[in-house]
Every structure is written in structure tokens, then in C-alpha cells.
Specification:
Order of helices and strands: HHEHEHHHEHEHEEEEEHH
Largest sheet: 9 strands, mixed
Distance between the termini: 52 Å
Strand content: 15-25%
Oligomer: single chain
Strand order of the largest sheet: 3-2-4-5-1-6-7-8-9
Radius of gyration: 19 Å
Length: 286
Amino acid sequence: MKSLAQTIMLSGESGRPLPDLTPSLTQAGVRLRRGQVTMIAAAPGNMKTLLALWYVAQHNIPTLFFSADTDASTIVNRVAAMLTGDAVDIVEAGISGSGADYYTEQVTGLQNIRWCFDPSPTLDDIDLETMAFTEMWGCPPEIIVIDSLYNVVAEHLDEYAGMREISRALHHVARSTEAGIILLHHVSENTSNAGECPPRKAILGKVSQLPEVILTLAYDEMARELKVATVKNRSGPADAQARSHVSLFVDAPRMQIQDAMDYQSSLPTPAVQLSPALQQFWDSVV
């Protein structure tokens, strides 16, 4: 039992903002915070893993990344592409050939990030890996990424009950470690229009109660636009129906993400002839 004054003095890092996800999302009131859970939800192929990877690679702060949904070689190729600007297929060929030393040197710079590639981790596995990270660094990770909720094994035989059990446990992990947890999850594909961000009700398993922030994604491959809607936000504005979104520009072959505010300034002026895909994206951000 504590007074509010004691809570302030003993609060530690919990609730403090992590680095910005993107300038546009910060402007829209979205902040990732320590001691809280941020869920990123989307249908398969809509760039949720890319967004999480890009975020932790950009900031390189102490992070524990549970990559249950993606194998180790794929992650290596994607991260090396992010860091070098080379296309993923070029990275893959280089690692298999004469470029192995070069790409190894590039990814070695991400010393603050540790990975677990168990395809079916349990809650005990997450706890043990977190304790091992703490033992190595002398403090818990600032960020824990779980990719994805669907891959974590629960004790319940009922799939949705298991998801709710895991969500409650991760909420406790966030509070006890003061880490910001980024939880990737799926949505029902028949509750939203193609190309539009899914509403909050589309999140599978009725697990939207506990995360402090929920972002849903939709990727337009032709326009190379990643739409990000804030459908829950305890510290800022949100729209459960996902009727508004922030736009990010994606260079998928090179695993690059650029905030639309920065991308807009780098585009040619409208007087210059653009390709149909770039013209469509220009019209969406200006």
C-alpha cells in the first residue's frame, strides 16, 4: 500500500516514453512507454514484423526480441538490408558467398539487441530469457518484442482463452520489469475492408482490453504506403473504428521505412511527372 507521493518517488522508469516510433505518430499522440504493452495488429503480409524490426534496429537500445514467427536467417537478411540499404536478395546472396564478412560486420553493431528464435515459446521461456538478459546486462531490457502472440504457447487448450492468459501475463511482465512490450498480433480478415486499417473489434481473441496502445496496419503495395491507425490509446487520441491513419513510406526490397512527413519533403514537386504509384502516394499525403 502506497500514497501517491510514494508512488512518484518509487515509480522508477515505468511510464516513461521510449524513443519515438515515427514523428507523425508522435504528432498524433502515440508514444511507446516503459512498463506498458503496445500491440501492433494486422493481417498477414501487412508489415507488422517489419515495423517492429525497423524500430528496434533504428534505436538499438537494450531489447529482447522473441522472433517466433520468423526464422533466424530471414531476420538476419532483413536486418542487414535495413542497415546497409541493400536489397534483401542481394544480402542473402552475399551472406552465402563472398559478402559474409561484410554483412556480419554490419549486424554486429546491434550489440544491444538479443534474439530468441524459439518457434513456440511458453510464458516460462519468456521469463527465463528475460532473466538471462537481466543477468547479462545487469538490468532488464528496455523493450521486449513478442512476434507474435499467436506463437506463444499457453496452458489452456482453448486458443482464445490461452491468448487472454498470455496477454495478462505479459501485462504483468511489463509492470514487473518496466520494459516496454511490443506485442504483434493478428486480426480477423473479414471484419475490415482490404487496404484499410482494421478496427479494434477485428483483433483476434478479445485481447484488446489490456494493452495501453493498439495500432492496426494496412499495407498498399502499389503505393508503397503503410497505413497506421491508433485504435486504442490510454494517453492520447484514438479511433476504435480506424477511420483515420498516419502514412509511412515502405521500400520493401530494402526493408526501409520513412515517415510520410519526411518522405513528402523528399518527393519531386507535383510539376514533375511521377509514376502512377508515386502519384497516388503523393495525393494521399499532401
